[in-house]
Write a structure and sequence with these properties.
TIM Barrel, single chain, 11 helices, about 300 residues, alpha/beta
C-alpha cells in the first residue's frame, strides 16, 4: 500500500510551509506529496497568508525534493487553458526528473471563480471542457518531435502546435481522474487516466464508484489492473484518546465524526480502516493532513501505521 500526503494550502499556508511538509514527507518515507488546487479558503478559515498557485508551488518543490512524486488532487479545468497547462505540467515534470502527476477535474467551487474572475459555466459545459482538455493535453504530449498537433473542438482550437516542451515521462505524466460521477467520470477515467481516485466517500460509496469504473474498463476492453484505484480521507491519528482529541480540535473536527468518515483513531484503528479500502482494490492512500505545523503527526504515521501496511 502506497501512502501519500495530501494538503489543502488554500486554508492557510505559504510556500515555505509546503516546503517543510514536503521535505518531511520525503524524509519519512512516504510515496508522494500532493496538494489541492484552489484559490479561496473554505469554511471559517481566513486563508492567510493567501492562496499559492498549485503549479508554481510544485515547480519549486520539484527542485527541492529528489524522490517523492508530486501532483495535484485536483486541478480544475476551469482554471487554465489546456495548451498552457500542458506546457506547465511538462516543464514541472522536467524540473522534477519525471516525478509529476496531473490530477484534473471539472471544477466545482463557484465562489473561488467569482472571487478571481474565472468563468464558471454549468456542470454540463464544465464536463465538456474537462473532456476536451484531456484530449488536448494528452495529444500535445504524445505528438512526436518534429510533428504538429491540431484540434478543433467546441471550446478549444489549436493549429499547428509543435506540442513542446515534452515531459520527462513518456507519453506523459500519469493523469488522475476521480469522483462519484456515474457515467462520464468512469468513461473518462478509462480513456485517459492512470489512476482513479475516490475521496471523502464512505466505504459503500467508494465500492460503488470502483465497481462503475471497473465495469467501464470491461466495456472498453481495458485491463482492470492497468488502472490504479486510490482513496483519500482526512487524517487524524493519536496514540491515545487525549492525543487524538487534541489533533481533532486543532482542525476543528469531532473525533466521533472523524472515526466514522476518515482515517482517524489509534494507529491500529487507522490500519484497520485502510484495510477496508484495500479489500476492495485500493492500492494507494491519500492522507489529508490539515494541520501543517504538526510534524509529529506524520512521524507517528510513518512509525506506527506504515510498517503495518507493507
Amino acid at each position: 500500500m502506497e501512502l501519500r500526503i495530501f494538503t489543502e494550502p488554500q486554508q492557510g499556508a505559504s510556500y515555505d510551509d509546503l516546503l517543510r511538509i514536503a521535505k518531511s514527507t520525503e524524509d519519512l518515507g512516504f510515496d508522494a506529496f500532493f496538494r489541492s488546487d484552489h484559490y479561496l479558503a473554505m469554511g471559517d478559515s481566513d486563508g492567510l497568508p493567501g492562496p499559492s498557485d498549485a503549479w508554481v508551488s510544485l515547480a519549486g518543490l520539484a527542485r527541492e525534493t529528489s524522490r517523492i512524486r508530486l501532483g495535484t488532487l485536483v486541478s480544475p479545468a476551469t482554471f487554465r487553458e489546456p495548451g498552457p497547462l500542458a506546457i506547465t505540467v511538462a516543464q514541472v515534470d522536467q524540473m522534477s526528473g519525471g516525478r509529476v502527476e496531473l490530477g484534473l477535474g471539472a471544477g466545482w467551487y463557484e465562489a473561488e471563480h467569482s472571487a478571481y474572475g474565472l468563468g464558471f459555466p454549468d456542470v454540463t459545459e464544465r464536463f465538456d471542457r474537462f473532456e476536451e482538455q484531456l484530449e488536448v493535453i494528452t495529444g500535445l504530449w504524445a505528438t512526436p518531435v518534429g510533428e504538429t498537433f491540431r484540434h478543433s473542438g467546441a471550446h478549444y482550437s489549436l493549429t499547428d502546435s509543435p506540442g513542446l516542451p515534452k515531459p520527462a515521462q513518456q507519453p506523459g505524466p500519469p493523469i488522475i481522474i476521480g469522483g462519484g460521477g456515474k457515467r462520464r467520470t468512469p468513461s473518462l477515467a478509462v480513456r485517459y487516466a492512470a489512476e482513479f481516485n475516490v475521496a471523502f466517500r464512505s466505504v459503500e460509496d467508494t465500492q460503488a464508484a470502483f465497481d462503475r469504473v471497473q465495469a467501464a474498463c470491461d466495456e472498453a476492453g481495458r485491463d482492470r489492473t492497468s488502472l490504479v484505484l486510490s482513496v483519500g480521507q482526512v487524517l487524524c491519528v493519536g496514540r491515545d484518546e487525549s492525543e487524538l482529541s487534541r489533533r481533532a480540535a486543532a482542525i476543528g473536527r469531532d473525533v466521533d465524526e472523524l472515526r466514522s468518515s476518515g482515517f482517524a483513531g489509534t494507529p491500529g484503528e487507522v490500519v484497520d480502516r485502510i484495510g477496508e479500502f484495500a479489500e476492495m482494490g485500493a492500492t494507494r492512500i491519500y492522507l489529508q493532513a490539515l494541520d501543517l505545523a504538526d510534524f509529529d503527526h506524520l512521524q507517528l504515521v510513518a512509525d506506527e501505521v506504515a510498517p503495518q501496511l507493507t
